[in-house]
Amino acid sequence: MSQDFRLDNVGMVNREKKISFKFNGKKYFGFEGDTIASALIANGVHLVGRSFKYHRPRGFFGVGVDEPYAILQLDRNNERDPNIRATEQEIFEGLEVKSVNCWPSVNFDIGAINNFLKMFFPAGFYYKTFMWPPSFWYKIYEPFIRMAAGFGEASIKHDKERYEHKYEYCDLLITGSGPSGLASAYAAAKNGARVILAEDKPRFGGSLLTSDVNIGNQTGVEWTEKIIAELKSMPNVTVKNRSQVFGYYDHNMLVMSERISDHLPKTQKYLPKQRLWYIRANEVLISSGSIERPLVFGNNDTPGVMLSSAAKEYMKVYGVLVGKKPLIFTNNDSGYETAIEFKKNGVNPVILDTRSNPSSDIITEAKNLNIEIKLSYVVVAAKGYKKVKSADIAKISEDKKELFKIENIECDCICVSGFWTPSIHLASQSGNKSKFNEKIDAFVPDKSKQQENTIGSANGIFTLEETIKDAFDKGFDVSNKITEKNNKVSVPTVVEKKSTVHDKFWCVPLPKGKSYKRFLDFQNDVAVSDIELALREGFRSIEHVKRYTTLGMATDQGKTSNLNGLQLVSDIENKVVPQVGHTTFRPPYTPVSIGAIVGREVGKHSKPTRKSPMHSWHEKNNAVFVDAGVWLRPRYYKQGNEGLFEASKREAKNVRQNVGVCDVTTLGKIDVKGPDAAEFLNRVYTNAWLKLPVGKARYGVMLREDGIVMDDGTTTRISENHYHMTTTTAQAANVLSHLEYYLQLVWPELNVNVVSTTEQWAGAAIAGPNSRKLLMKLFPNLDVSNEGLPFMGYKEADLFGAPAKIYRISFSGELAYEINVESDNGYFMWEKIMEVGHEFQIQPYGTEALSTLRIEMGHVAGSELDGRTIPYDASLEGLVSKKKDFIGKRSLNRSAFTSTDREKLVGVVPIDKTTSIPEGSYIVKDPKAKLPNPKLGHVSASCWSVEYDNPFSLAIIKDGKNMIGQKLFAMSPLKNKTIPVEIVSSHYVDPEGKRVRS
Amino acid sequence: MLYINCPHCGLRSQNEFAYGGDATVKRPELNREISDQEWDNFVYLRKSPRGKHLELWHHISGCRQWIKVERDTSTHEIFKTYKANEAIE
Q1: Phi, psi for A856 (deg, rounded to 5)
Q2: Quick check: A311 and A326 in contact, CB under 8 A?
């Protein structure tokens, strides 16, 4: 295998293991440990994409998270992963990636025509171009913008990968394993603190991987390996690579995404693809390092122009040359280090230094290596379209305004260094207001708002000696606050080459008569001219300039562009950078896949699923289930070819004629116990509770303090101080919280305890004229006559050995009983009921039949008690005590609640007795009235009355009491239906309620 | 995510709790004649202070106790937590 740009015997990739992968359909080779970027560069490939707006050719600019260019689309296990950074994604056997934002290919891209039309695409062109005529928006502009927007394509298929969440606690979280991270982790771990050290790259060490330094008589790499090995062996330390801490939230909660299988051909059986860590740290040390700043010159986005630190890392870590005729363009000593590295690998670089007379150890070394150095020199413009071929360079005047002696020199890459920008993102997210450090022309963290400190170059400390000392101290100090062990390790000696000050120069002026694009933001094609235009057009706030020009937006969030942008705005405005300020840093620091954020809570697991103990019986008997809150309830039991309508009608009819049984386990159940229980219920419910005898149940309605009905249900007095309360399925949790609120906060003097018993009891409602006969057979030793167990009576009994509770309550309006047994006996109870009930033509019925039965009886439920109704509206005013006070009573006196024309519950029957009325229909007087048609009310629930065999609905309409007998219209604009209807009583069946008492 | 010191259970993450609103609101006693205005203030009117605020939280996935939390609404700093009927300093 020949790789023209791979160095022999240099780097940390595993030469023993060759890996093949495909880029844009073509096969390439790399080594284990390569990223897509390093492997492609080794193969001499630099053209990997097209820019966002002008579709200009894009290569590689960086070597890590800051990469603005090399955004690729990845195929893995037949799934697409968009917006992968080639500089981060490690290669694996069979990897397939392709370029984005280009068509038909990255080499020949039609969209590049934008580059020649760029005078038509200035800053804010969206806002200017797509304004008029308004009618163009929907069909022309929006589709056009949508097509042009974004880079990768998300998959529309279900993501089959697994993502996990993990909660972790530690004394100290350290974000980044560079010299400061390692030193502080070591100091803190030795002092007994529980430490998590997170590194976003596969390799630990940060800048130590590439810098020529010595710590404690070891090279940076050796020292890193020693520290990491020791940390890994300590039980109080967690060391994680490929893990990016991307968000700093309240109370020292940080979130980290760990890429577990992204670099492997397939997700491992017992490992997820990614894991999201929620880390609650007592203390945080931010050691996220710094990112090299670009220098700005003409066509500085040409492939082959890249950060000098990136060029160095490609050599030292990956053994890859980014070019063989490098031009180094720098305003500080970092560029020299890269040049020295080139030289050591047999390549002759040329250094252009903007400074006139710098001197330092590093510069001396470069001179001693006979590297060509041109002082007070700049790159005016890169030449070449798909790859740098040469550069126009020039001497620059002392005031940096004039260019002399412009000449063209041949080169195949331009490595730029405009000094360093500390990564203050996490500190800033924690609430730390940054301050501007003039010495380094960048923002550094200021006062901590949370338990955090920033160390190393992220804090603007650029010498290793200072970094190591400070990090050892901070690691000890913050850990000692927690452990108080006073175990301080000694700081190793550091040998490093001294560097000198950088030049504040960062943007090369345009030569006369030239209009090169000088780019600030490489991902969004924001050039110097765009910022100038925005300012001319009156944008002043940096936040506005950002949004107008898109400077610092998109997947890289301006990691390489923000400071240069601020610098430019300050220069034009004649301000200093701190006056301009910076835009807000928000999480996430780097893009996080949606899958990782969602974790395991997808599909069926997005909420818990609760099943009653009888669930498997329902399944075996062809139940079709419906979600009721988190519960699964049988909606109907399918027989033959029946649909919902036929089945529910059959089931409801059977209840009216024979007997049916319904699983009511899901109803909320709350035990209310204590000497003051009666008094408590009396305050909670609208009706009177003090005189309810033991062994009797009562229907009750509870309100919120604002007078709106909160819930209803029956409560039974089991013994002197023990009540069994039932709630609706949906409100069970809220009612418990409501009761706890009043007991704990408002009336703590009441001696009452409440606890949920929903899951402790399995319930079966037996309803229909045959239900007593069935009960007699189920409980042969019990007196279940109308006198022995009257309506609203309660008895404890024995169901073939299982202790049972029988409540004579009815939701269907028929003679009915509810049997509760302990959950474990639920299935047994159900089978017994079915077995014994056979001779009485028992059939199970689901929630649909249950609804039919309650609607035609005029019993209100959730669709009437919808958070807008007071007792009067739902015809529950008879249950409101005039004598006693209760929760929400005072609100019922409000004028709106006492007004005579309030909407009130009525029944609705279509005049033709055949057309079903859609739920949600409006009731109106005149269907042809001018819009908006005055609405009298709405249809809350509809059913097919099995008693009368015609449609019947409940509605809540204005002045309902006086509307009975009127002929009106139900209108459903959604279904495009207008149905003539008659308003009737809501008690459509058995209005006197004889059946339940029979 | 806030870290709330439940006086019954210790430090727990916010996702175990449900927010319960202003803890300084006092429900008018039962059976007392009060004006519409007073009742209205109790049911609807809440201050929305920037800064220190005493609020209710319900440890709904924990001990199920209602607690009072003194929190800064702009910085989220929690100064102190109290049991339901503890005297507020």
Answers
A1: -70, -15
A2: yes
- Structural domain of A255: 165-290+422-486
Cβ atoms of residues A414 and A274 within 8 Å: no
| Co-location of A429 and A408 in the same domain | no
**Residue A55 pLDDT:** 85
Residues whose CB is less than 8 angstroms from the CB of residue A630 and which lie 6 or more positions away in sequence, other chains included: A607, A608, A609, A610
Instruction: Answer yes or no: are the C-beta atoms of A328 and A415 closer than 8 Å.
Output: yes
Closest CA to A273 of A284, A262, A288, A264: A262
Q: Are strands A274-286 and A452-454 parallel, antiparallel or unpaired?
A: parallel
Residues A220 and A276 in one domain: yes
pLDDT band at A83 (very low <50, low <70, confident <90, very high): confident
pLDDT tens digits for range A32-76 = 999 999 999 999 999 998 888 888 899 999 999 999 989 899 887
Model confidence band, residue A525 (pLDDT cutoffs 50, 70, 90) = confident
Domains and CATH numbers, chain B: 1-24+45-89 (3.30.2270.10)
So what's the ipTM on this one?
0.98
pLDDT band at A109, cuts 50/70/90?
confident
Whether A331 and A236 share a structural domain: no
**In a domain? residue A2:** no
- The predicted structure's pLDDT at residue A150: 67
- A745:B56 CB<8 A: yes
Q: Which residues of B touch A (CB under 8 A)?
A: 1-3, 13, 18, 20, 27-28, 30-31, 34, 36, 39, 42-44, 56, 58, 60, 64-66, 75-76, 78, 84-85
B39: which chain A residues are within 8 Å (Cβ-Cβ)? 890-891
Whole-number Å distance between alpha carbons of A871 and A868: 10
Buried b / exposed e across A177-197, counting CB within 10 Å, b at 16+?
bbbbbbbbbbbbbbbbbbbbb
- Chain A residues with CB-CB distance to B34 below 8 A: 890
What distance in Å separates the CA atoms of residue A820 and residue A834, rounded to the nearest whole number? Answer: 15
Compute φ and ψ for A643, nearest 5 degrees. -100, -175
Q: What is the pLDDT of residue A222?
A: 97
pLDDT number for residue A102: 77
Peptide bond into A445 cis (omega under 30): no
A713 and A807 assigned to the same domain: yes
